[in-house]
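Suppose a colleague, Dr. K., hands you the sequence of a protein chain of 155 amino acids and asks what its three-dimensional shape might be. Before reaching for any lab equipment, you can write down a predicted structure in token form. Begin with the sequence itself:
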Amino acid sequence: MVRSLEGKHAKYFEAILQLRDTTDEVKDWVDQEIKKLNIVVPRIEKAKKTKDGWDYYLADNNQGRQLGSRLQQKFGGHYCVTASLHTTIDSKEKYRVTILFREAPFRKKDIVEYQGDIYKVILMSKDIFLQDNKTGKKIHVKYKFMDQIKQLNDD
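The predicted structure, expressed as tokens, is then:
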């Protein structure tokens, strides 16, 4: 069910989806998903360019969370949700949600270095799954540690 902005001011929003260090492919996908899923956006700029990415203002925090989760499943990357108390109306607390998505700088099947060893990226889902090139041993790494994984050139 899609909520409308009826009864809300023109700049009302509950969620900010932050895309950081992402490719144009990710931004294009988000734009298409907003249209396809009929996600409600305030009557302000849908997307605002920042120094290192984009901020999307969304009228519904549940739709924002859903979009962030789908982004992480499709592209792999660090996905984090934080909420802060925005206001209290009739003794009911209203929260504003920030959803951060930072794309991984490598893809499935890439050869990477992690903690001095060489691995192949075999899966990117809730965690990053790596397979040691020499031993075949598989490990998983949380996305919050993805900055420790370095993509190696194919030279």
